[in-house]
Amino acid sequence: MEDMATEHYVEMLGEPAARHFMLNLDALNLPAVDTTALELPVSEDEIWATIWELPPDKAPGLDGFTARFFLTRWSMDVSNLTNFMQKNMSISPDEKQLAVSGHNWGMVDLDGSMLTFMVGSKQAFQVFLADVSQTQMQGKTDVLLEFHVDDTTGANELFWKAILEETDGSSSSEEAVVTFDGIAILTPRGRYGVELHLSFLRLQGQASDFKIQYSSIIRLFLLPKSNNPHTMVVVTLDPPIRKGQTLYPHIVIQFENDTVVEKNMKLSRELLDEKYEGRLEGSYQGLVHEVFAKALRGLSGSKVTRPGSFRSSQGGYAVKSSLKAEDGLLYPLEKGFFF
Q: Which residues pair with 253 in a beta bridge?
């Protein structure tokens, strides 16, 4: 590569000719200029000065954040988030520089069971060594890491399907307490019909069908999207459901904010009074995400967590952020965070 580059510029510029005269720049008494500042690290003030000069809708980096975001929201959201954490959790966050421009070279730092890939002084990504199944040398300079893959198949899967058919068959005759049709689910992605039964909920899609016992539901989250006409209801599961080789510990259901529904619970008054006294009502009317959350909370007994007192610079409940390579929304809750 070096020889090719040298040959290219030699052909373009030619060979240097012999010089018969030399310029004595010292004799010209030109003013001396201190250029040591050109070798200094770029300061934060210089970065902000450059951002102020950018067009507001241009993104200075590959993360997609525009100059308008940095000038109008960055400092306010960081300040709001820092104050929220100090007040509610008694901790102060540290600022950490990350490499987001994308590199295929750098340095590695091994700290206990964590392998960190560094680009200069910035962290690019981390690998938890417990996820590595085996490693080996390739040549003299490369190290190969192989990660755990769940490839369980065979007779145990057939046995599981046979049991599932029997359990589904025995419970499928049970009438759903309430149904929600054509619901958009972000993970696992698809449009499903949602049925809430006495002891489980069912997600029925064109290609997938999930039956989830209420005992597997750990918590419900009701999370409005900032500057967006949708609200998410997140169902946290343990154990998670599985689709293909992917495990889903969270079901993320998206509802439109302006949709109003009226739902009647198909339960007798005796059952409501004896089993669900004070927890479930005979009918609900209101916004679809509120009706769904209340019905699922009443049947499953799971707690519903909503955003707390935190507000972003634009009055939303979350701030746009990145977790490693994933962009998303960070919701500060009263006792934790949800990304």
A: 185, 233
Rounded to whole angstroms, how far apart are CA atoms 192 and 66?
A: 36
Give yes or no for a contact between 133 and 332, defined as CB atoms under 8 angstroms apart. no
Sheet containing strand 114-119, strands side by side: 107-111, 114-119, 122-128
Instruction: Give tens-digit pLDDT for 91-131.
Output: 888 877 777 666 777 788 888 888 888 888 888 888 888 77
Provide the token pair at 220.
């419900």
Residue 290: Cβ within 10 Å count: 18
| 305 within 8 A of 219, measured Cβ to Cβ | yes
Q: Identify which of 39-48, 145-154, 297-306, 307-316 has the greatest average pLDDT.
A: 297-306
Q: Is the pTM of this model over 0.70?
A: no
CA atoms within 13 A of residue 13's CA, in its CB half-sphere: 9
Between the CA of residue 263 and those of 178, 184, 222, 258, 284, what are the distances in Å?
A: 7, 18, 19, 16, 5
Pick from 312, 309, 328: which is nearest to 75 by CA? 312
d(CA 322, CA 165): 41
Q: Kindly report, residue by residue over 292-308, the tens digit of the pLDDT.
A: 999 999 999 889 999 88
